[in-house]
Design brief:
It is built from eight helices and no strands. The longest helix has 20 residues. The radius of gyration is 28 Å and the shape is rod-shaped.
Length: 146
């Protein structure tokens, strides 16, 4: 019966010795960002890239490369700093630019909703019209005619 008591005491002494030799200094250090964390400057680089390339076929990987960060880290950074994923921001920019072109367009000069939507990366006119109507409260054809 004495052996378990001795074993427990020996283990306790071993743990105390280890803590004395190897103290826990984790809480003494300032947090440093890891290689996949993103600062606001990273998000700004991504936004600048999206703004400059909104009319092109752009992938998440290309945006992340321009921001000098991995795709997953970029998604997390956008959620943190912009409350949306980067591709949602890209769609919003494209939708706003299509809206601007629809406002400036003239159907008598041959401007069409389909052509303007395609210019900004919307391959499916029906989906574009649905998104546009959801965001602006009216169909894109009405904006083009006004």
């Amino acid at each position: 019966m004495a052996q378990p008591i001795l074993y427990g005491e020996a283990l306790r002494q071993l743990v105390l010795g280890a803590l004395a030799v190897f103290p826990n200094s984790t809480l003494d250090r300032q947090h440093t960002a890891g290689p996949n964390s993103a600062e606001p400057g990273t998000v700004r680089r991504a936004v600048d890239y999206i703004d400059a390339h909104a009319g092109e076929q752009t992938t998440l990987t290309e945006i992340a490369d321009a921001a000098r960060i991995g795709p997953r880290a970029l998604q997390l950074a956008f959620r943190k700093h912009r409350n949306q994923p980067p591709l949602a921001y890209l769609r919003r920019v494209r939708l706003e630019r299509a809206h601007r072109d629809l406002q400036a367009g003239d159907p008598t000069r041959g401007d069409t909703v389909v052509a303007i939507a395609a210019r900004w990366g919307f391959a499916h006119p029906g989906r574009f019209a649905g998104e546009y109507r959801h965001f602006y409260g009216r169909p894109p054809s009405e904006t083009l005619r006004s």
